[in-house]
Write a structure and sequence with these properties.
Distance between the termini: 27 Å
Number of strands: 0
Shape: elongated
Structural class: mainly alpha
């Protein structure tokens, strides 16, 4: 891929959006629980942890891809090492917050007013979607016409870009 191309232009802002979302999503959840409930309880705060972690790894991954596209693969190598170490803990944490998110509707837990129950469930589902989107299958198809076209034509979900790079990175280290 050539420098200054369409992919480079897209990645030059995309990684920043992902990192920004690591701040904006929790801020939005905290705002919603304050406006519509009693403020964020511990369960809501815990459910935000894997979301933040996954968005940070995602943002750093796309930044690393941009640098690699420009000829410097060090940032990508560093973030793939981080993504490798974080995968299992993020999976376990995502499973835990899914239990918390669903469990809040059945068991009274700290901050279990309606706003917290829905915020916890929403954050847990977002964590699951982000985990799958980065470590397994690309779920996000609405921001890129070729990806969206692939989805609506029934060609299925493609492997996640980070999953492919991570698999190649792991193979190269064996």
């Amino acid at each position: 891929m050539q420098t200054g191309g369409r992919v480079e232009r897209r990645l030059s802002w995309y990684w920043q959006v992902e990192l920004g979302n690591a701040v904006l999503v929790p801020a939005f959840v905290l705002f919603i629980t304050r406006v519509y409930g009693e403020g964020a309880g511990w369960a809501t705060l815990v459910t935000l942890l894997p979301v933040i972690g996954l968005l940070v790894i995602g943002g750093l991954y796309w930044r690393g891809k941009l640098h690699a596209l420009r000829g410097d693969g060090r940032a990508l190598d560093t973030v793939l090492a981080l993504a490798d170490r974080a995968q299992r803990p993020l999976l376990v944490l995502t499973a835990i917050v899914l239990v918390l998110g669903v469990g809040g509707f059945f068991v009274p837990i700290s901050g279990s007013d309606a706003a917290n129950r829905w915020a916890s469930l929403g954050a847990a589902l977002l964590a699951l979607a982000e985990y799958v989107n980065y470590y397994h299958r690309q779920l996000q198809h609405f921001d890129n016409w070729p990806d969206f076209k692939r989805l609506i034509t029934g060609k299925g979900l493609r492997p996640a870009k980070m999953a492919l790079d991570l698999a190649a990175w792991r193979t190269a280290r064996r």
